[in-house]
Structures are given as structure tokens and as C-alpha cells.
Amino acid sequence: MPKKQKQEAMDITPEKVGSWAFIIGVILAIVIGLFGKYIGIPVTSTSVVLVLGLLGVIVGILNVTDREVGLFLIATIAFLSAAIALDNVLKAVPVVGDIIIPVIGCIALFVAPGAAIISIKALWDISKTRYS
Q1: Domain segments of the chain: what residues?
Q2: Which of 65, 64, 68, 76 is nearest to 112 (CA)?
């Protein structure tokens, strides 16, 4: 690999950090949701909430462009609303519910902080353009 290409590959950009935060957040949410109770990490532990929440904030700040704000917020609202309803449905299905409910909860812990950041940014942009 030429030196210039090697340097470009090693550059750390906000986009790369945001992309990796998203990938790590999704993987952690799924793994902790599936195996957390078996390895002694409860889904509601402070460390899980903080790590997933921080990754969600990083994704919200670094990954979502101005063009994607609306789609991101709609997708987040749809997911979080569906997660609440699905939680109630899955409680009636003993084995499947016990497996999937914690995964959905962890994904919600990961997605919600990013949505909050993007919502605040969108409100700021709306008020800035409207009142300036």
C-alpha cells in the first residue's frame, strides 16, 4: 500500500468515529440484550445505560446529517413506539419474549439519546431560521 493511501486509511474522521459508534452500539445492544443476564450484566445496570447512551449521543452528533434529520427522527419515533407495544405483546410469549425484550430495551437505550440530541438540534435550527 502506498504511503499516501496508508495515511488516508489511518485518518480518524468524525464520520468514521460516528460509523464505528453505531456499529459498536448495535452489536453491544444485541449482545448485552441476549447474554447480559447469563454473564452477570443486567440490562438496567448503570454501566450498560451509560455506555449505550454515550454511544447513542456520539451517533446523534456525528452520524446524522441535516438531510437525514427528519428520516432519523421518524424512524426513532416509530422504533420506540413499536418497542413499547412489542414489549407488551412479547410478555405473553414466554420463551421468545424473554429473549427479545432485553434486546429491544438495549437498542432503545442506544437510540433514544441520539434522538434527543437530533431533536434539540432540529428545534434549534427551526428557531434560528424562523427568528433571525
Answers
A1: 17-130
A2: 76
